[in-house]
Design a protein that fits this description.
This protein is an alpha+beta fold. The chain is 44% helix and 13% strand.
Amino acid sequence: MILQSLAQYYDRLLNDPNTNIAPPGWFQGRLDYLILLKPTGDFVSVRSLKREEGKRFVGRKTILPCIGKQAFKHANSGKDANLLWDNSSFIFGLGNKGSLKLNSFISLIDENLTDLDDQGIDAIITFLKRGLSDPKYFHPIITDPEYGKEIESGRSNISFGLVDDEHIFVFARPKVRERISKLDISDDSPVGVCLVSGNSNQPIELCHPVIRGIRKSNPTDPDPNYISFNEPAFVSYRKKQSANAPSSKSAVFAYTTALNYLLASQRQRMQVGDASTVFWAKDPTDFEETFCSCFEQPVKGEEAVKYDRIRSLLTAVRSGVPPEDEARPFYVLGLAPNASRISIRFWYAGNLKEIKERMARFFDDIEVVRSKRDPEFLSLLQLLSSTATEGKIDNLPPNVAGDFARAVMMGGNYPRTLLANAVRRCKAEKERVTFARVSIIKACLVRNAHFSNSNNKEVSVALDKTYGNIGYVLGRLFAVLERIQEKAQPGINKTIRDTYFGAATSSPQITFKRLDELSIHHLAKIRNSGHSIVWYERLKQEVYDLVPAAGIPNQLSLEDQARFSVGYYHQRQDFFKTKETEVTGEEA
């Protein structure tokens, strides 16, 4: 299903004149340097193709020939050269197996292009064979004062061009390009039924290209494969490599090209925890851009655009999604590295109507009263990082982010681990009950109550003075007692929140007995300073009246600890509305 959807997306891109997707026999890669030659094969100069992206200089994105044993990576055999481009170790015969690599590079051109009678091909062959017979011929390039050191490292991707030619690359010359597109790359591959297309008598791809752009825990790790059988224990029926999951060369090219295109995109890619997440529709739609805006943290200065898109989505869903959207497929794929293969963190295959409604429901779940300093809408990253130690999303358990994203898109339960993490952070850190943490707690409570078919009332968006859950009531009471302390000791740096918050959620009976005694002294101090305490006493008693007859319990469940945090937050936010009444000491 995943590979079929990616292959269909490739066909859509290929037929889109506004999309620069690689046609069959080609792929999107990067070139660092261009070697300019005369038609006679004489070296003219080396030109850098690097462009500045962010704080780095990277190779120029280019559609390259995808011909050779492994166009996306080398197997270190020295015999797997690419056609008309490669890293400098193959082009100049550098390092281990240097002459073998150079011979491989020359042989691939000889086998496929020398009968073209093209000036560019002839110049390249002449240049390379001179260097093969006399390695010193390459010295002007390898010792270039500006680029030589990097080229000599063997890691730079290089291709060739003719001086004063209208085409920057030799492989872009019309005759060469046409020949490359017609080359038969089936070689001696086995023939079988393709599991992606369902077609029979197809040449099967034994070694799938690597997938680039997935965020790895160790940047030096090799790029992984989506499908790979690299040990005898993984195969069956004596089949070799990926013949165990037969996919035709054309289907493999289509899905890998589409997936690499998505992972390189800024419009259709986002990071959810350790999952590099891509999304696409079967047919063109503006929602592909809206989807990313709804979940990814906006760039500074672009918040208004992001929030407008979310508001438009919510308005559209509440007024009714067009019925035709139900017939328009939409896909979301979350990928994470795992040794030499890719792990599927989550996969959503649905339609536009369904995903829009689930996204709107997600924003309803996390909606909670906020201050003017807080953002109108929170991204997945902001929500998840608020539940992680030190606010670093890498400190979350590996599957939490993926499980959360899956729940958003599939409409299922939010992971209980996420709720536990949010409650733990509320108790552990100085910046305890934040807008983001309360949003995630409220979302978990509301969503889980829905799926448990509970008829009990759950926490609301803002303060609910009629909600009698013991956890919520005690959270409100804690906020009231803290407010009394702040009034008694103006400018205090350390309140009961810093000392007793964790204890109040874990051992409420003992802790609130102590806090109540402290509040009596704090009220006396307010009265002695000449201020009225009527408003504080009435509010304190109003909350105490909601405590059940059985009294304050010895401990609270995880869910009630979560409601404690929400009750505390709601009551604190409500104080901003009642500030004038609080100052005058009169009843609201």
